[in-house]
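Feature request disguised as a bug report, sorry. It would help if multi-protein outputs had a clear separator. Right now it looks like this:
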Amino acid sequence: MDIPEFEDDDQTIENLVNAGIDYVETQCNLQLGISDYEWYTSCLPYEIPDTFYVRSITSIESVASGGPTIINPSNYEFIRMSKRRCCIQWNNDYSNNATSFLVKFKAGFEEGYVPEALLMAVRAFIGDGYVNREDPIREKRTLVDKLISPFVLPYV
């Protein structure tokens, strides 16, 4: 990283950028980029409380005593219900008696679509960490916490 006028602080700033991103992702239980996830469930169809900002279903496997079986994508549909809710629904002519399923999916924010409040939180974390290097204890609710609060899902 090469930041003009901050030659001696480049590593500090880079560390703060990484820490800010990690803090926001950890507190909000989400990724600021697209990632792959696996989720086990005991039933489908199912409404997904969109804790990950699901983008697409990669595959669904029925898990039975005989081993996993990949379900043909033409047998289910991924439906976006709102900005933070989606569901997986079987097509009308399909049924499956499996007792559990492994759903593989892609989730997170695509480049250019990260909410501005989350970007501002990362920037605030960086600025606060740069200015207050000697104060590692966070005793009160900061600007960062206020910016990410709408994205924090307490039930995760």
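(second protein starts here, but nothing in the output says so)
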Amino acid sequence: MTLSDSINRLKWRFEKNQNFKPNQKDVECLNFLIDFVIDNNEKHFNNNRLYAKLYMACLKATMEHYKCNIFQVTAQKAIHRFLAKPLSHHFERFADFLNTQCMYDVMDKNGELTDMISAGKSFSSEDVEANIKIMVSESLRKYNKC
């Protein structure tokens, strides 16, 4: 039995008869679809284990930030709002973050420490994108089997 066969069979049964008693074939089709969904969810999770680890870390940090527990949806909604934004938005916000933090010091032409903005250097979203892609690729190569 295939996914398409099961869907077509049940579709035909529902469209053909408004009131019908399911037979063994209908039960098999429904069970096949349920097994398919469960198996697909498991495969999808296994193919995204690194994402799952990061999601849990973000969920924990977000729960701590909002002082909520796992049974409240506040933290999950915050993460989903974050994920709903385009990746380019996050590159831009991360570049802004890097440009405003004070930890990035460089030597100016007089040999004195100064912040990057004062030194005329800053991070662009393109810089951030290029470096994040490298960092993510290295992480995937190194940890994708975990």
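Even a blank line would do. Unrelated, but nice: The chain has three domains: 1-47, 48-84, 86-146.
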